[in-house]
C-alpha cells in the first residue's frame, strides 16, 4: 500500500517536493501559504482507507454520553452536599471532567446525519444542552461553516481567529474570558431571550450575536431555516425555563448549590477554551486556503500523548483528521489515524499535522505571539 501511495504522489505531481517542505511553506512575509497544492494522494487515501468507518454506532454513543451525565451530575451533587473541602474539590474535579466530555457531544451533533442516532439529539439537549444553557442550536448551522472549504480561516469563519499573529496578551485573555460564559448564557436565556420577544430589534441582536458558539467577534448569524427553526423554539423555551429555575433555586436552597454549579460550569468552559486554543495553529490571516493547507493549520495529538483523551475528548484529539473527514464518528477516528499512519509514507503531508501534546502547542503559540510584542 505504501508503494501505491508513493506512485500516486508522483502521478499527482507532488513527489518533486517533500511533504515536510509543504508543511512548512511560507510566503515571503512569513505567513503560511494557503495556496499549498492539495495533496491528492493523502486525500484519496483518507477516503479509500476509511470507507468502512463512517457509521455512527449507537452502542458507543448512548452509554458514553449517559455515563458522563450520571457521573457528572452525581459528582456535582456530592460536591454540593459534602462538608469536607478536599472531598468537595475532588468531586467537583470529577464533575468537571465528566460534564466536559458530555458537553463535547455537541460537536458530534453538528455532523452526524439527523437519522443516524434516533432520539440521541433530543436526549442530549434535555440532559446536557439545556441544563448547560448550550442547546445544540447554538452549534448546528454554525460549526459547519467552519468546515466550508472557502470560509475556513477567513472573516466568514465563526470559529477562527489568527491568534498566532495577535499580541501576546490575547492568549490569556482568550482563555480567561471563558469564565464569563456561564453568567453570559444565564443572562442570554433568563433576561434577553424573553425580553426580545417584545422588542423585535433586540431579538435580531440576540440571534445574530448571542446565539452561536463562535470565537470570531465579527460573525453575525443568519436567521434559522428549515427544520432548525422549530428546534430553536423548543430549545430556547427550555433554556429560559431552566435559567429561571436556577435563579429561583437560590431562594429555595441558598447560594451554595448555585455557586458550586456555576464554578463547575465555568471550569468546563475554561477547559474547552484551552482545547480550542490548540485545535489549530491559527496562522492564517483571512486568505482562502486549500484543503491541505487547512489540514496543516489544524492539529492532531495522537497516542502516545497520555492526557489528550482528557483535554480533547470525544475524538477531538484528532481535530486535523476530522477536517479531512468531518462526518466520521468520533469512535472511528483513532482507527482511521492508525490506518493512514501505517499506509502513508514518512514524508506524507499527513504527518505534518500530528503534534506531541498540549504543552508544545501552547509554547509554539505563545512564542508566535511574543514575537509580536513590539
UniProtKB/TrEMBL annotation:
Keyword Nucleus attributed: no
Protein origin, superkingdom: Bacteria
Annotated CDD domains: Membrane-FADS-like
Transmembrane segments: 60-80, 86-106, 171-191, 241-265
Domain Fatty acid desaturase: 85-348
Any coiled-coil regions, as ranges: none
Name recorded for this polypeptide: Fatty acid desaturase domain-containing protein
UniProt organism field: Blastomonas marina
Amino acid at each position: 500500500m505504501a508503494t501505491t501511495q508513493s506512485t500516486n504522489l508522483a502521478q499527482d505531481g507532488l513527489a518533486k517536493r517533500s511533504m515536510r517542505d509543504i508543511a512548512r511553506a511560507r510566503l515571503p512575509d512569513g505567513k503560511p501559504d494557503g495556496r499549498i497544492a492539495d495533496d491528492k494522494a493523502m486525500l484519496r487515501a483518507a477516503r479509500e482507507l476509511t470507507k468502512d468507518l463512517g457509521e455512527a454506532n449507537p452502542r458507543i454513543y448512548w452509554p458514553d454520553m449517559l455515563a458522563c451525565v450520571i457521573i457528572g451530575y452525581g459528582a456535582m451533587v456530592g460536591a454540593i452536599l459534602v462538608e469536607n473541602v478536599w472531598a468537595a474539590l475532588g468531586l467537583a474535579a470529577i464533575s468537571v471532567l465528566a460534564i466536559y466530555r458530555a458537553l463535547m457531544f455537541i460537536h458530534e451533533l453538528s455532523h452526524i446525519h439527523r437519522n443516524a442516532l434516533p432520539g440521541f439529539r433530543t436526549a442530549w439537549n434535555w440532559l446536557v444542552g439545556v441544563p448547560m444553557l448550550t442547546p445544540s442550536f447554538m452549534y448546528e448551522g454554525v460549526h459547519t461553516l467552519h468546515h466550508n472549504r472557502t470560509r475556513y480561516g477567513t472573516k466568514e469563519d465563526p470559529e477562527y481567529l489568527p491568534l498566532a499573529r495577535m499580541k501576546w496578551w490575547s492568549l490569556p485573555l482568550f482563555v480567561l474570558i471563558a469564565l464569563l460564559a456561564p453568567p453570559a448564557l444565564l443572562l442570554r436565556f433568563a433576561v434577553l431571550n424573553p425580553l426580545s420577544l417584545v422588542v423585535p430589534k433586540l431579538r435580531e441582536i440576540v440571534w445574530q450575536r448571542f446565539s452561536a458558539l463562535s470565537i470570531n467577534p465579527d460573525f453575525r448569524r443568519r436567521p434559522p431555516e428549515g427544520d432548525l427553526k422549530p428546534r430553536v423554539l423548543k430549545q430556547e423555551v427550555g433554556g429560559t425555563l431552566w435559567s429561571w429555575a436556577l435563579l429561583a433555586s437560590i431562594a429555595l436552597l441558598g447560594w451554595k448549590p448555585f455557586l458550586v454549579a456555576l464554578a463547575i460550569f465555568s471550569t468546563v468552559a475554561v477547559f474547552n477554551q484551552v482545547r480550542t486554543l490548540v485545535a489549530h495553529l491559527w496562522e492564517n490571516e483571512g486568505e482562502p486556503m486549500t484543503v491541505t493547507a487547512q489540514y496543516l493549520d489544524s492539529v492532531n495529538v495522537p497516542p502516545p500523548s497520555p492526557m489528550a483523551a482528557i483535554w480533547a475528548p470525544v475524538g477531538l484529539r484528532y481535530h486535523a483528521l476530522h477536517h479531512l473527514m468531518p462526518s466520521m464518528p468520533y469512535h472511528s477516528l483513532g482507527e482511521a489515524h492508525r490506518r493512514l499512519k501505517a499506509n502513508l509514507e514518512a514524508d506524507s503531508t499527513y504527518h505534518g499535522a500530528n503534534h506531541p501534546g498540549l504543552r508544545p502547542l501552547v509554547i509554539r503559540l505563545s512564542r508566535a505571539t511574543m514575537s509580536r510584542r513590539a
